[in-house]
Design goal:
Blueprint: E1 14-20, H1 24-33, E2 44-53, E3 56-64, E4 67-77, E5 80-90, E6 93-94, H2 95-106, E7 117-118, H3 120-129, E8 133-147, E9 150-159, E10 162-171, H4 174-184, H5 194-202
Antiparallel strand pairs: 1-5, 1-10, 2-3, 2-8, 3-4, 4-5, 6-7, 8-9, 9-10
């Protein structure tokens, strides 16, 4: 079995991820169990815009550094989710791509498109004007680890300014993820992906995150 490399593409991975307010113990165990990882993934920051649709939970759309990335839900096995790339695009983005790829992924009514291409700002304005879509700003500070040959991270996440924490394990091998979850205590939490977490934070889903006890 070939080892996964952080930041490298592989066949579609399975993932456990959760969001909440306190994963201090799980993060500590993750850091202690981790094998050495490349310095470039010790600590990473990013600013992204997630496009949320009220009618769709299977396509995950985010924009980072002027590029759009859409992943689609493939399957769930043993409580783990598998996602696959659906499309990648750059801004300015063409009317053809918006018509054939982007808005069909949102599963909402298509707005009137009067131009042949749109800048990022124009696209975001279009999203904000749509009553079934939202553009949510997400900032991440991620700390990378490797446990049982699974790619793991602990992250501090700002969702429209609201601070939450996330912890995850992903791999092409389900058994390795389940072992990591058991060893770190992640297995006592609900699997919550980014789409679900953001919708809960902004009030589109009336459910708490994994550990919101006060």
């Amino acid at each position: 079995m070939s080892q996964l490399e952080i930041g490298k593409e592989s066949k579609p991975r399975f993932e456990f991820r959760t969001f909440g307010q306190d994963f201090e113990e799980e993060h500590y165990l993750l850091s202690r169990l981790s094998m050495p990882v490349p310095e470039k993934v010790w600590e990473r920051t990013s600013e992204e815009i997630y496009i949320l649709s009220k009618t769709n939970n299977i396509n995950n759309t985010k924009i980072r550094n002027g590029k759009m990335d859409i992943k689609t839900f493939v399957s769930e096995k043993e409580g783990l989710e598998q996602w696959n790339p659906l499309m990648k695009g750059e801004f300015p983005i063409s009317k053809k791509v918006l018509t054939e790829d982007v808005f069909p992924a949102f599963k909402v009514e298509m707005p009137e498109l009067s131009k042949e291409e749109y800048s990022l700002d124009e696209f975001i304005d279009m999203i904000k004007a749509h009553n079934e879509l939202a553009a949510v700003r997400v900032k991440k500070l991620r700390y990378g680890y490797m446990v049982n040959d699974t790619i793991c991270e602990f992250a501090e996440v700002l969702i429209n300014g609201a601070k939450v924490y996330s912890i995850n394990s992903e791999s092409t091998e389900i058994a390795d993820i389940l072992k990591t979850m058991e060893q770190t205590g992640m297995n006592k939490y609900e699997n919550i992906n980014y789409l679900q977490a953001i919708k809960r934070v902004i009030g589109w889903i009336d459910k708490p995150l994994a550990n919101e006890d006060f």
